């Protein structure tokens, strides 16, 4: 599961970065509505990955 979570976290990071690079709204302050949802997904997956239980 951790590998799948890591892969989803990395894809979300890549998707957010790609969007931000092409969106002037996201480059200058608060993200646009699309950018906000991408950033939220990335943040949620990052938190889940970093806070997972290590067994």
Quick summary:
This protein is an all-alpha fold and 55 residues long. 78% of the residues lie in helices and 0% in strands.
Sheet-strand content, in percent, reads: under 5%
Poorly predicted sequence stretches spanning 5 or more consecutive residues: none
Shape: elongated
User: How large is the count of helical segments?
Assistant: 3
The secondary-structure element order is: HHH
Number of strands: 0
Largest sheet: none
Helix content: over 70%
Q: Helix/strand-derived class?
A: mainly alpha
Rg (CA only): 13 Å
Distance between the termini: 12 Å
Name the average pLDDT: 90
Would you kindly provide a written description of the structure presented here, covering whatever features stand out?
- The protein contains 3 helices and no strands.
- The chain is mostly helical and 55 residues long.
- The chain starts with a helix and ends in a 5-residue tail after the last helix.
- Helix 1 packs antiparallel against helix 3 (33-50).
- The chain has helices at 2-22, 24-27, 33-50.
Task: Write the SSE topology.
Layout: H1 2-22, H2 24-27, H3 33-50
List the defining traits of the structure above.
55 residues, mainly alpha
């Amino acid at each position: 599961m951790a590998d799948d979570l890591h892969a989803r976290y990395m894809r979300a990071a890549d998707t957010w970065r790609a969007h931000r690079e092409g969106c002037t709204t996201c480059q200058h302050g608060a993200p646009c509505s699309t950018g906000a949802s991408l950033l939220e997904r990335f943040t949620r997956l990052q938190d889940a990955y970093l806070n997972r239980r290590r067994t």
